[in-house]
């Protein structure tokens, strides 16, 4: 029913004439020890949420609000959860948790600013209403792709319970949450059908983390009945087998105040004890359609609509409190009138003083990256480090990890694999805030983790390409460990560690294997800084291999170089080193950066010492030398016949092609971008202006690929007027890479193809 009609119905209750009023501060057993005074505060939060919801509807009708999504029917469970949990317990909710926010301390002014998208709100007016981000209340930033937030919650539960301490140098010194914190996740019953939710529950059970998954079950996911989603319409049925391993499954009536208080307290006590997580199916009503664009009267049985109306948790709670002498209808009326007046006034004030978002404001919330800040972060960790690198590397040599006892920067030229391995050893020595995890990254697994004597007789794995070799053996399974073969779960775990204050390095074996984690990566990790208005950050380095030219199988899903797919994601930085020196320097920068970084490592370069006779081994920079993002490296700068712009493994081919071209009298300048996001536009333009002829070569495909972006840097502005010929682009063909060496030759650029394009560009124009 309409809110005003609901209030009229509540205050018409005449039970006050029959029931004696309870003392304000007397604990009431039937209300789980809550006093009438406290129960009134809970009721006020419920009424406030419903009144804010009404105001959002009014603002929508007036044209000040572009979107509305209601919380009606969920207020009781929201308030019971907020009241029972500690204020320090992290909350990862969804767009129905308005009453939770309010009961935990969100201001009405904030809610009005959120409703109209005002830049002064804590979320900066960047997100639609009901998607808050309140660091001071431990309410983590919300996002619309529901289901995936459950993996965030599972990851945070694991991160909080992780045994390694978080340093004082962390952006969250000592860690954000204490070890016995309950990680609260609320979710609608429809979203529990997602694969992410199933994996989230699995991880919390497998690791016995302190997670509370509260399913708000109103019976409908927009217009899809819960009966069409689960056996018996119960979202907990798929998880009944997990009860053997500590999962507590509960069914809670979210329309009954007394039952709700009792059951929530029982759930929280169970979780905090460390016995395991709780999965609760909570019966709630839907007091209004899914959102402002939905009308449930089109598809819901009128009888069922009536059930929702008469089981409204506010109606039932008010009647119960009145009948038990906790509050009178007059007190409820006065409470309502006060809220109605306050919210109306705040709404009018917000609209009248609306502060819009500027282009500069929005853009400033996408990336944190500033090389000077990166260097400060690096210095902070280095200054605090107690590692004796000289002593440690001598010990590593004695243990057989490396062939030399010397510091890695003094050894001389090396392959890219060793450069990355050495750099990760330096990071691991420097701080416990570094964790590396993923598929097959560890040296040993299972019982062999503890079998130290047996380990000494074995080489150990250390990653499919041996890049993380000996990290687990040296620093332990808490710092470098294998995860289940679940890419979405790997990144969910990484999110949790970032929220707790670490700087993790998750690894996914191949770029195309990131696809199962795409939603979590694109919609959650890379949006965290923006959707929280810069109040939260995700400092992680996602290491992955990419591209073809492997000595192994290659082909579909193992030779993918589609960086354009990832370049299109706001909030993500992308590094693609072509040699040992850049790999080491860029990896340190990536780790000390507060943005998520996709660190792409060409398998073809891991162990190569030369490319068709052109040496590619390099030394690596000093420990405190970092390489800035967005700064290309230019080779053969004196050459002006034409320029090749590229990155990664293709750059080494271009070096060989340039040597061949030089023998034919063509002098080629080479631009190695090193990072494709940010991209060094200045270097690209300078090369185009100086040379007049440009060849862009990438392993990416043409459509939506990185090559077109590189070319457009030149053609969209004044660079166009310096060109002496059309820009030539050489990319992978519009197909997935076929198997075998002939597949690479047919599908991808190579030296011969590059030389052919150089000759054509030089001779035809």
What can you tell me about this protein's structure?
- This protein has about 775 residues and is an alpha/beta fold.
- It folds into three domains: about 5-160 and about 180-365, 3-Layer(aba) Sandwich (Rossmann fold), CATH 3.40.50; about 370-615, Thiamin diphosphate (ThDP)-binding fold, Pyr/PP domains (Rossmann fold, 3-Layer(aba) Sandwich), CATH 3.40.50; about 635-765, Rossmann fold.
- It is about 40% helix and about 10% strand.
- It contains 28 helices and 21 strands.
- The protein has a seven-stranded mixed beta sheet with strand order 9-8-10-11-13-12-19, sandwiched between helices. The protein has a five-stranded parallel beta sheet with strand order 1-2-3-7-6, with helices on both faces. Strands 16-18-17-20-21 form a five-stranded mixed beta sheet, with helices on both faces.
- Helix 24 (about 650-665) links the parallel strand 17 and strand 18 (about 670).
- Helix 2 packs across helix 4 (about 100-105), helix 2 runs parallel beside helix 11 (about 330-350) and helix 18 (about 485-500) packs parallel to helix 19 (about 520-525).
- The longest helix is centred in the N-terminal third of the chain and has 27 residues, at about 35-60.
- The protein is elongated and about 105 Å long.
- The mean pLDDT is about 95.
């Amino acid at each position: 029913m309409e809110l005003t009609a609901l209030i009229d119905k509540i205050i018409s209750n005449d039970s006050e004439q029959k029931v004696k009023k309870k003392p304000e501060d007397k604990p009431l057993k039937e209300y789980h020890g809550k006093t009438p005074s406290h129960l009134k505060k809970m009721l006020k939060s419920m009424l406030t949420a419903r009144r804010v919801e009404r105001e959002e509807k009014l603002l929508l009708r007036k044209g000040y609000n572009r979107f509305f999504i209601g919380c009606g029917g969920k207020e009781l469970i929201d308030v019971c959860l907020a009241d029972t949990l500690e204020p320090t317990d992290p909350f990862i909710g969804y767009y129905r948790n308005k009453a939770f926010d309010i009961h935990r301390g969100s201001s009405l002014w904030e809610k009005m600013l959120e409703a109209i998208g005002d830049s002064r709100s804590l979320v900066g007016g960047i997100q639609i209403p009901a998607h808050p981000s309140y660091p001071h209340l431990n309410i983590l930033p919300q996002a619309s792709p529901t289901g995936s937030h459950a993996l965030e919650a599972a990851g945070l539960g694991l991160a909080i319970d992780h045994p390694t301490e978080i340093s004082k140098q962390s952006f969250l010194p000592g860690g954000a949450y204490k070890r016995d914190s309950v990680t609260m996740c609320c979710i609608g019953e429809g979203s529990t059908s997602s694969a992410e939710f199933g994996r989230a529950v699995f991880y919390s059970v497998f690791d016995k983390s302190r997670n509370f998954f509260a399913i708000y079950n109103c019976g409908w996911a927009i217009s899809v009945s819960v009966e069409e989603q689960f056996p018996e319409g119960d979202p907990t049925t798929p998880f009944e087998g997990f009860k053997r391993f500590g999962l507590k499954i509960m069914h809670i009536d979210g329309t009954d105040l007394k039952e709700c208080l009792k059951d929530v307290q029982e759930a929280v006590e169970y979780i905090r004890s460390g016995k395991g997580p709780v999965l609760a199916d909570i019966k709630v009503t839907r007091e209004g359609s899914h959102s402002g664009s939905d009308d449930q009267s089109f598809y819901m049985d009128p009888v069922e609509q009536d059930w929702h109306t008469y089981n409204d948790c506010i109606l039932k709670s008010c009647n119960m409190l009145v009948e038990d002498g906790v509050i009178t209808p007059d007190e409820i009326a006065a409470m309502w009138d006060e809220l109605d007046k306050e919210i109306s006034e705040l709404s009018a004030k917000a609209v009248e003083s609306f502060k819009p978002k500027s282009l500069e404001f929005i853009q400033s919330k996408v990336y944190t990256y500033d090389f000077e800040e990166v260097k400060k972060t690096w210095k902070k960790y280095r200054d605090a480090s107690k590692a004796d690198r000289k002593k440690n590397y001598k010990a590593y040599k004695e243990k057989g990890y490396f062939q030399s006892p010397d510091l890695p920067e003094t050894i001389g030229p090396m392959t890219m694999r060793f450069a990355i391995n050495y750099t990760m050893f330096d990071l691991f020595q420097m701080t416990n805030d570094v964790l590396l995890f993923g598929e097959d990254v560890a040296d040993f697994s299972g019982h062999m983790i503890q079998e130290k004597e047996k380990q000494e007789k074995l080489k150990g794995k250390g990653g499919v390409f041996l890049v993380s070799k000996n990290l687990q053996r040296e620093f332990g399974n808490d710092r470098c460990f294998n995860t289940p073969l679940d890419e979405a779960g790997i990144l969910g775990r990484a999110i949790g560690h970032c929220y707790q204050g670490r700087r993790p390095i998750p690894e996914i074996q191949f770029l195309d294997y990131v696809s199962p984690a795409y939603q979590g990566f694109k919609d959650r990790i890379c949006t965290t800084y923006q959707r929280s208005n810069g109040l939260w950050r995700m400092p992680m380095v996602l290491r992955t291999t990419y591209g073809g030219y492997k000595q192994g199988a290659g082909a579909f899903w193992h030779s993918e170089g589609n960086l354009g797919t990832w370049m299109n994601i706001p909030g993500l930085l992308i590094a693609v080193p072509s040699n040992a020196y850049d790999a080491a320097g860029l990896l340190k920068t990536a780790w000390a950066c507060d943005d998520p970084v996709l660190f792409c490592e060409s398998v073809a370069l891991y162990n190569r010492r030369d490319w068709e006779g052109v040496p590619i081994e390099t030394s690596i920079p000093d420990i405190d030398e970092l390489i800035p993002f967005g700064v290309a490296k230019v080779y053969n700068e004196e050459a002006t016949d034409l320029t090749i712009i590229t990155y990664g493994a293709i750059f080494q081919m271009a070096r060989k092609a340039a040597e061949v071209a030089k023998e034919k009298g063509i002098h080629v300048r080479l631009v190695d971008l090193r990072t494709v996001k940010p991209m060094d536009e200045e270097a690209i333009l300078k090369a185009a202006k100086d040379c007049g002829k440009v060849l862009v070569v990438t392993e990416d495909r043409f459509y939506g690929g990185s090559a077109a972006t590189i070319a457009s840097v030149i053609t969209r502005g004044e660079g166009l007027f310096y060109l002496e010929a059309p820009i030539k682009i050489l990319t992978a063909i519009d197909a997935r890479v076929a198997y075998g060496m002939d597949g690479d030759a047919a599908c991808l650029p190579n030296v011969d193809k590059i030389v052919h394009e150089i000759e054509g560009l030089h001779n035809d124009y």
